[in-house]
Specification:
homodimer, alpha/beta, Aspartate Aminotransferase, domain 1, Aspartate Aminotransferase, domain 2, 3-stranded antiparallel β-sheet, 13 helices, 14% strand
Chain lengths: 429, 429
């Protein structure tokens, strides 16, 4: 294949004509596909249906310790569910509080609490002139929305192949006391799919923050979400590393079963040091009498233990693999060598990250939409929705079927080509 | 019966001896009963078990509108559940957002949001020198904990037989711009069991707050929690009254099924004006992708409609009635005419409120505890846990069986007598 940038004007004009015709053809097909969010597909949702039979009117509703899950109590979650989510996050049970259905909600509450009450007794952020968060980019739009909502200044940190640019992270965190946090998706990052190397995790644990209330917001959303049995990323346990480095309170870990059982009807958890957990619980006890313990029991009984959950995740992997591969096959076949885009080949998670030529992402997303395929909005993977290069596009292959994914990707590559050609032609004028 | 205060010292001394001996006897029995919280009893929890069979692996998981409850979506709750909770709160469906398992959590979030983001665009409370809430007393300790947690100054307002002292409420709300809210339990109030009269509701609706961000926090926790079929309190719909009075945005209504189905595994909701709901949702959309819709579906399918829920509540009433009556019987029999305490006779709700002689509540609760019966801590029904008269005690009859309740109340009246005698003797010295 000839790289587009090596084509002359005539070649590009001919190509544009050909691509435009093809695009009009596809538009005529009336596609209607949604690749915008990391929504599990129907076949994935079906996987967890048997969990709904685990608890019924004749079930013993008591926990292992004998507590009645139907009544008030167990603010920090029932023991067996704390154990399950602790094993999921590779931490100790005592470091875990199981909450409601949404880990995003725990993250929101964590930032919100810091605004009004500070962190373990520090000055409430609402009383500070400036609070900053580091945001590895591209990243998860809903993280950025939380910090934006609270008026926290966000600073882009390039996400490299083995994690955030740690030179930059260290420079900010160790010198600027206004930097209070960093958003991380350490495994199968949203959207690039990379996992943090041991060195990166250790450098995180060994930060020497200028701010006592600096915390790492470690969103372990995809900790069990491998695509392949023989290529599984592994990351170091950040909590242990932080302890070793004399920073036991520096990290909050978040996880949920939203993409294990049911989005919206899963259980979520936060893991942290004893001191952090105590501070969190001093707020939680004001906020609620307790979370849904019947659903916690449902999860614990269904999976029995972490091995049950891991087996379950293999079924998700089988489904997801086909969708990822459908996308990658089209990208490889159609774009390889054209030098108009690069894309990631994750071993897990929910997304493929695509980098178009500078200044093309918005136009590509718009063109796809015009022909019936909705992608995540260009820019969404950056704070304030602003991708400085207008280059990154998040592809979410989970919801459509593999056939629909292939169809949608066909359209996607066509739009990438067309927009790139137009960009190159524009540059010639 | 002779009123204690008409007894002379000798009579009191003889009485004290007799009561002390009886008390030591009871202590020997090793009672272990908990009347501290409004926890439903086992037989009440059993009532809702069939709900757990409504959703299973072969259920159609789609809402009436066809949305898959297993997946992300429906931030404001599924339509049928919004309808159900709207009918529960006697408001329109469009005014309702269904949330997670805890209405307390919605109240907390509402105050928390006001701290950081203000109310519909007003100055965030965290930036104000002083924020005050009116607290009808005696009231619900968990309301007071929320406002205390956020450093909001709480002002006691006497709760009369038909609602809060509205002269005082009007005086504060209409003149002091620092007054931003009032906690209300308008039906079967916690703990006195009274319901607000139409006049009180109308006076609420016709407030002319000095603060634009003043809101009424209307905790409709016991809106369906009647004890008797032939004596049901009814209250006016505050939302409609506020509209009529030109104050459409002045009230937030909260409710949940925690004491209808399962504490912890129910569904909760907030009802308010469109403008308020829009502001709330602008925050909710940052906080979560959505609440547990499968549980919403479970509730909707189980009850079918509000009539199903009302039928269900009759079964609760049957159980609760026996417990209330067991307490009242002992109180009437043992304390009538002694002039050492007064108590309420609610037509619904979860509590009986007892007012001992001034300065006796703490000692009574301590004495009960010493003999194995745990009551709600004295003072808990007042802001900061400080009952200025040390007089009010909340009795929560729901958790023990009627027999246990009678036993516990026997001890309670004994302690009331003993402490009262000691108080009177003390006054003579």
């Amino acid at each position: 294949m000839k790289a587009y940038r090596n084509m002359n004007k005539e070649e590009l004009l001919a190509l544009r004509e050909q691509l435009s015709a093809a695009y009009e053809d596809v538009k005529g097909k009336g596609l209607k596909l949604d690749m915008s969010r990391g929504k599990p597909g129907f076949s994935q949702l079906d996987l967890s249906l048997p969990m709904l039979d685990v608890i019924n009117s004749s079930s013993d509703m008591r926990t292992v310790l004998g507590n009645d899950t139907r009544n008030y109590g167990d603010l920090d979650g029932i023991g067996e569910c704390r154990r399950l989510l602790a094993d999921m996050m590779s931490v100790k049970k005592d470091n875990v509080v199981v909450c409601g259905n949404s880990s995003l909600n725990i993250m929101y509450d964590t930032v919100s609490r810091s605004m009004t009450k500070g962190v373990n007794g520090s000055t409430p952020w609402a009383q500070l002139d400036k609070v900053k968060f580091l945001c590895p980019v591209p990243g998860y739009d809903r993280h950025f929305k939380i910090t934006e909502y609270f008026g926290i200044e966000m600073i882009n940190i390039p996400l490299l192949d083995d994690g955030p640019d740690m030179d930059l992270v260290e420079q900010y965190v160790n010198n600027d006391a206004a930097v209070k946090g960093i958003w991380c998706v350490p495994m199968y990052a949203n959207p690039t799919g990379i996992s943090y190397s041991d060195e990166v995790v250790r450098r995180f644990a060994n930060l020497r923050p200028a701010a006592e209330d600096f915390r790492i917001y470690w969103d372990h959303a995809y900790c069990l979400h491998h695509l392949y049995e023989d290529q599984q990323d592994e990351i170091l346990d950040i909590l242990t590393e932080c302890e070793k480095a004399g920073n036991p309170n520096m990290v909050y870990i978040f996880a949920s079963t939203s993409k294990v059982t049911f989005p919206g009807s899963g259980v979520s958890a936060i893991a942290s040091s004893q001191e952090n957990i105590e501070f969190i619980e001093s707020q939680m006890t004001v906020q609620t009498i307790g979370h849904d313990k019947i659903n916690q029991l449902r999860h614990s009984r269904y999976f029995k233990d972490i091995n049950g959950m891991k087996e379950h995740m293999k079924k998700h992997a089988e489904i997801m693999r086909g969708k990822f591969e459908a996308v990658l096959e089209v990208l490889d076949k159609e774009l390889e060598g054209l030098e108009i885009g690069t894309w990631t080949r994750p071993h897990g998670g929910y997304f493929i990250s695509f980098d178009a030529m500078e200044g093309c992402a918005k136009a590509i997303v718009a063109k796809c939409k015009e022909a019936g395929v909705v992608l995540t909005g260009a820019g969404a993977t950056f704070p304030y929705g602003k991708d400085p290069k207008d280059s990154n596009i998040r592809i979410a292959p989970s919801f459509p079927t593999p056939e629909e994914m292939a169809q949608a990707t066909d359209l996607f590559v066509l739009c990438v080509k067309l927009v790139s050609v137009e960009k190159l032609l524009e540059a010639m004028n």
